[in-house]
């Protein structure tokens, strides 16, 4: 599995949105600027997130984006699935015994573990890690 740029940008943008929505709706151009992501690309990312009910958009002069759910209810699996489709290794069972063994002992096990990991990491976990990273770096001083 390779985490695409689309998923990486989407996750980064959702962390940003979660941080700044406390102040109200967040404009997409502000998210793009803070994260150094092309606005046009981010519009595509947010269209997919909106279709999958991860974010909601508010139209008008004071418009912008908000999370559609609480951060504890948005999983990394859900985000990746919305942006890239399935993140699992494709099944390619053949007729040979070796094909069945590969599917059973490798592919199915990797997919099960990947699913367990990604469904158990939430946007709240990522926000907490972000806060810890910022706090740690603010307390660092360099000589």
In words, what does this structure look like?
The protein is mainly alpha-helical. Helix content is 60%, strand content 6%. The protein is built from six helices and two strands, in the order αααββααα. It has helices spanning 5-20, 28-35, 39-51, 76-84, 97-119, 123-139; strands spanning 55-58, 64-67. The chain has a two-stranded antiparallel sheet. Helix 1 crosses helix 4 and helix 1 crosses helix 6 (123-139). The termini are far apart. The mean pLDDT is 92.
Major sheet summary line = 2 strands, antiparallel
Q: Write down the Rg.
A: 18 Å
Shape call: elongated
In whole angstroms, the N-to-C terminal distance is 40 Å
Q: Structural class from helices and strands?
A: mainly alpha
Which blocks of ≥5 consecutive residues have pLDDT under 50? none
Helix content: 55-70%
Q: What is the secondary structure topology, with strand pairs?
A:
Blueprint: H1 5-20, H2 28-35, H3 39-51, E1 55-58, E2 64-67, H4 76-84, H5 97-119, H6 123-139
Antiparallel strand pairs: 1-2
List keywords for this structure.
143 residues; mainly alpha; two-stranded antiparallel sheet; 2 strands; 60% helix; elongated
What's this, in brief?
Helices cover 60% and strands 6% of the residues.
């Amino acid at each position: 599995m390779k985490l695409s740029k689309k998923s990486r940008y989407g996750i980064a943008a959702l962390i940003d949105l979660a941080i700044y929505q406390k102040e109200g709706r967040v404009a997409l151009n502000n998210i793009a600027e803070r994260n150094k992501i092309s606005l046009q690309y981010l519009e595509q990312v947010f269209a997919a997130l909106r279709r999958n009910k991860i974010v909601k958009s508010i139209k008008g002069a004071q418009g912008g984006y908000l999370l559609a759910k609480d951060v504890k209810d948005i999983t990394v699996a859900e985000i990746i699935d919305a942006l890239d489709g399935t993140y699992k290794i494709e099944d390619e069972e053949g007729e040979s015994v070796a094909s069945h063994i590969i599917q059973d002992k490798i592919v199915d096990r990797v997919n099960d573990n990947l699913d367990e990991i990604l469904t158990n990491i939430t946007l709240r976990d990522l926000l907490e890690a972000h806060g810890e990273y910022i706090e740690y770096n603010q307390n660092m001083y360099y000589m």
